[in-house]
Design a protein that fits this description.
Subcellular location: Cytoplasm
Order of helices and strands: EHEEEHEHEHEHHEEH
Helix content: 25-40%
Shape: elongated
Number of domains: 2
Number of helices: 7
GO molecular function: tRNA (guanine(37)-N1)-methyltransferase activity
Number of strands: 9
Structural class: alpha/beta
Strand content: 15-25%
Distance between the termini: 33 Å
InterPro entries: Alpha/beta_knot_MTases, tRNA_m1G_MeTrfase_C_sf, tRNA_m1G_MeTrfase_TrmD, tRNA_m1G_MTases_N, tRNA_MeTrfase_TRMD/TRM10
Strand order of the largest sheet: 2-1-6-5-7
Largest sheet: 5 strands, parallel
Catalytic activity: guanosine(37) in tRNA + S-adenosyl-L-methionine = N(1)-methylguanosine(37) in tRNA + S-adenosyl-L-homocysteine + H(+)
EC number: 2.1.1.228
CATH class of the largest domain: Alpha Beta
């Protein structure tokens, strides 16, 4: 998988990709992540990539020309499955979206900034618009990191135990059941006896029942 991220602040995203699972995915050659400074495609010597909105109003708008030039250049080099714009008015990211994107080969992420992008960019290039929640950030960079993390961890071979991702919350529209590890008793709190029984069929039944119970309590909208 290759992910190309277009941003006016690519340095903001470098750290998350230098550690833990994201780093290992690249070290294994399973994933490539490339950052592109949008100002490299700016239209003048001042590296301008934003301008005032037509019709007036507060804030600045990301201009169409630098974005179009950047995306067009990337598209000339390979075929992309999706060109994704990170924006508060996109569809809210969920596990199903992450699952579907994790089997793609080439993705472009466009990080919004200021008041957003010229609408014509959406019409020319954007195939999917994604939000990570009903709130506004200063830019799409942190959202791009969240989206990338949710996708990359699902790529086969990235996690040491691939079954782990299949039992995550939301994979079956259920939250995860309670989990425990050593010691068996701590400050009077005991691990449920069923988990110590060795009866794996009963353990899975218990876990499913607990997942349903917890989902009913915390996120009944998922059921």
């Amino acid at each position: 998988m290759r992910i190309d991220i277009i941003s006016v602040l690519p340095e903001l995203m470098e750290s998350p990709f230098q550690t833990s699972i994201l780093r290992r995915s690249m070290d294994k050659g399973l994933v490539e992540v490339h950052f592109h400074q949008l100002r490299d495609w700016a239209i003048n010597k001042h590296k301008q990539i934003d301008d005032e909105p037509y019709g007036g109003g507060a804030g600045m708008v990301m201009m169409i020309e630098p974005i179009d030039k950047c995306i067009s250049e990337l598209k000339s080099q390979r075929d992309y499955d999706e060109v994704i714009y990170l924006t508060p008015d996109g569809v809210t990211l969920n596990q199903k979206i992450a699952n579907s994107l994790s089997i793609k080969n080439n993705l472009i992420f466009l990080c919004g900034h200021y008041k957003g992008i010229d609408q014509r960019v959406r019409e020319l290039h954007i195939t999917k618009e994604i939000s990570i929640g009903d709130y506004v950030l200063t830019g799409g960079e942190l959202a791009a990191c969240v989206l990338a993390d949710s996708i990359i961890r699902l790529v086969p071979g990235v996690l040491n135990d691939e079954q782990s991702a299949l039992t995550d919350s939301f994979q079956d529209d259920l939250l995860s059941p309670p989990i425990y590890t050593r010691p068996e008793v701590y400050k009077g709190l005991e691990v449920p006896k069923i988990l110590l029984s060795g009866n794996f069929a009963k353990i899975e039944e218990w876990r499913h029942e607990e997942a349903v119970r917890i989902t009913q309590e915390k996120r009944p909208d998922l059921l």
